[in-house]
Records
---
Amino acid sequence: MNKTGCLLRPSNTRNYKFPVCDVSDKDLPSTFILSDERIPTVRNQGNIGACVGHGIAEVLGILYGLEFGKEKLISPWYIYGNPECRDGFTGYGMFLCDAIEGVRKCGSVPLEDFDVRLEVPDIITAVKNRSELTDKAKPYRIKSYIEIPCYALVSKRKSALKQALYTYKLPIVIASANYFGGGHCVIVIGWDKKIDSYSKIPGEQAIKITVVIIFLQKKLMRLMFCSMKWNCQDMCSQKIPKI
């Protein structure tokens, strides 16, 4: 069994792709880390396969804070159990692509409204039994998301990730195919000139992890990040205000 809960499938050809053309590696600093207000909180998923829910929820909290002035803790459990984020799948873990699309349509809720730590199928039942939260989740929907292409050439994959992170200066949600032997959802927040990595709090509980581990995986399927405000066309053309 996948111990962390991030499941993988081929890329959706309909996803908007990040254009790797406007920033070259020579324009990038040797070391880069997001500012503190853009770095997600580290939380522990425990033995539940909700790493995808955690990754998306943490980025949602950052985006909410940037756009409304105060960061909010978003429920990863609501995302993990919401059928709209699972596209009919009821087994352990979830697909990042389905979860992000579900959050685009439905959003999530503040952690204080749904802090129910259950595994499937009980977490799905728990969400279904809280139908009153449907409207409460709508303000936390994302407007769009972009996929960073997973190039076969590791150096190009690495360049694309750096360029996207430096261009938008937002945490990037990643589905890794082989994180210590299993699929895992992590968040990239920067890189270091020596090891191309940055991890503020290493260890099993860290949702942020060294980028070098991600780069070394040959089967990395998908890199994505989200926006609660801007549409894909504006983000792809980088016609978005600096925040």
Note: The two ends are 41 Å apart (CA to CA).
---
Amino acid sequence: MPERSSRAAPGGTTSAPGGGANGGAGRTEGDLSRGEAQAGGGRERLRDRFMGIDESFSVKSYYPQLKERLRELEAERTRALESEARLAKLNTELESLVESRTAALRSAMSGLTEANAELERTLSDLRAAQDRLVLSEKMAAVGRLVAGIAHDVNSPLGALLSSVSSIDEGLVGYLESFPSFYASLGKGDFGRYLGLVAAGAEKARSLESGRDRARKDRLAELLAPECPDALSVAEAAEELGVFDEAEAAVGEIGFRRAARIIAEAAKTVALIRSAAVAAEATRRTARIIEALRRFSLGSEAKSSESIALREEFAGVLSLFQDKFKRELAVDLDMDEEIRVSGDREALGQVWIGLVANALQAMEYRGRLGLSAREEGGSVLVSVSDTGRGIRPEDRDRVFEPFFTTKKLGEGMGLSLSIARKVVEANGGEIDFESEPGRTVFRVRLKAARK
């Protein structure tokens, strides 16, 4: 077979199959250089592609973009510097404001400390003033209590003093006149005398008034033709409250003997009546003191009881017996069966106050009306007088404590204020109406169970 000829390799070197000059397997230095150059060119192309630069890139064409970008960066830098300057200014202002506020706070704290000290002094002064006010109020309360007690006790004590004086004066006259009177009595006259005294004493002890002006006038007319002291004898019979017995004695033994017996019996009954009034006044005073004792000990109020109104008002009238004059008439219109439920002692002071006010308003001349009537489950009690009335401008103040239109020494203006409190405490109500010549106070209370 013909031999294969060797092909010259590029660059003048030859290689034989399976080897070369160095054994037919190596590469020339030229081959290595060309390979490296090719590799380097590939890397540059890859970089340019990655950077976005193609073969057409030139600095001149990209310059406007760079210039715009530089302007943006410069603007951002300027804004950053301006922001930094503003921040520095704000920081300075903030520090100044903090310093100012801190100084103001220190000043306020100093002022607060002074104000707190002043407040402590003021509080101390207020505590001292409060202690003085409490003491003053306690003294005022004691004063009101004493005034109320004086008002309540005044009427029964006045009646007691008047009754004792009447007994003192009457007993002297009685002891002087009785021996001669007894010696002049005819047969059966002493029995008549004792009968008149017994009948009059019964009325006197019940504290009911036997006054009857019409019958007194009729008896005076009957005695007038033969008895020069007809009016005084008729008044004595009225004092006794025994007109029937007196008229019977006149018919049995004649005017002169009957007049002497009636007059002497009236003296005796007057003593008995004064003793009964003194006893009633003493009992009422004792009840007032007992109520005060319960109050001072903090005891509970007395429970309600059934109260006979006619009996109560008869006792009240007896306390003012010495104030009654010929020009005063009393109308007592109350059935014995009418009863109310409440505190007897407290309501007793209400009746005394209302009657005393009515008598003083009339100056003990006129007509005093006392009535009671049942209305359903309640009782309406009325106390009326024919006095001057209550002025319109004073009517809204009638129940105010210490308000009074009376003369100095006649009252302290407490009776109606006390009356309203007592009536309301007993579940009732009180009101009034007034006009010149007539004033009526009305008290409504619960009726007692029968």
Note: The first strand starts at residue 305 and ends at 308.
---
Amino acid sequence: MMKFKIILLLCLLFHSALGLAKKADRPAIIAYQYAIYLDSHCKVNSDKEVKGVLSGALKDKFTLVDNFDTYPVSPVLNIKLNKNVQKSYAPPSAESIKLFGKGLSQSDATKLQTISTAIIINVAYPEKYIFSGMLDALNFTEKLAIKCNGFIWDEETREIFTPQVWHELRISSWSNGAPDVSEHTIIHAYKNTEYNRGITLGMVKFLKPDVVVNDFSWSDSKSVGSLINLVTQSMVEGEELADDWSIELNIKKITNSLVNAEFSDLTFKNAQQIMKVRFNPAKPEEGDPNNFLLEMDFSGFEGDSLQEKQDALLSGLFGWKDQISYVKHNQNIDEASELARQKLPNLKQNFLNGLKAGEYIHVKAPFKTTDGDNEWMWVEVVKWGGIEIEGLLQNMPFNVPNLKTGSKVTVDESTVFDYIYYHYCPVVFKSLNPSLILYSARVSVV
């Protein structure tokens, strides 16, 4: 959905987002936009409510301005009342609200489609206010939304909130003076050729680049989302890009105690928890945020294919656990396998017709071990033509030395022993976010 938006200080944001621009006599400026969609008394007298909020606990936190000074020396707000939003600042559709609405009911989504008025909140402040300015802006927006009985829109992440959930996700998640960056950003993931692309939205609010990971499998979406969140959290908490465009990720150094605990909980005993990761400038695609983009570079990790290299980084950083079970086939197992194989033609047709975003299929197939036996392992299907299935190995082999997790393999359809069809559905692992959230990563399948 295209929407009219005010682009503020674009050149400053673009050049300073990477964190490499040198600050001379002028400070870097952070600028972004919120809005409150409303159908209440605030349509008539929004100025009074704005000044009322700023006269309380937020007194002296912001200066109200009619137009932005190019380089404000302290936090400023520019407030505009849009009385024709359906034409120039349309609210998200009911379908979009299913994915990106936080706390909104179906009746709320329906109501939004008829709302005509919104308060547009433009925020700007020097970089030194990066945390205090954001927290004050969050509180101001929440208090105004409560007064005006409105819904809060974040123009950068393209999400809409009730005031209650805005407080829970955006304000209560701060710890030790640092935000939970994953609650102020979102990861959009979508199929791109055979594999998938993930990109953050919202990092411009921290004067940092948005992060891209290309060509990962849906099976790895949980871990990739966690990796991206660790990168963005580390950047916002002060980890700078080195001259070789790398940063050091260190789970133990995360300042926000809530985020630190979440990352610690998802790691296995063999996790390194510290890893150097390199980046390259990313090529923007349609729909990407208007910000500098960094693509994660996996070339320095062990593996023959990109997916093997990705797994090497992920399993090294977060650890991994796999186990082997020695099973002797009997009649019951063989009968269950035959029932599964009878469903393969329909499963294949579903794949060829095109799976929905976030859906994927695993098949269990045999691989010859060094002693001539079979080691049965799961494979994520990438291609399925004729009787051959091409995919990515999902297990760490115990006795097949030429393969590893993420290896590209080909299996004969007739040898498939079992399958798992993963259907995408919104899963809530954290707060009230109805997006696909895995391992504390907010990954919205689009």
Note: The longest helix spans residues 132-148.
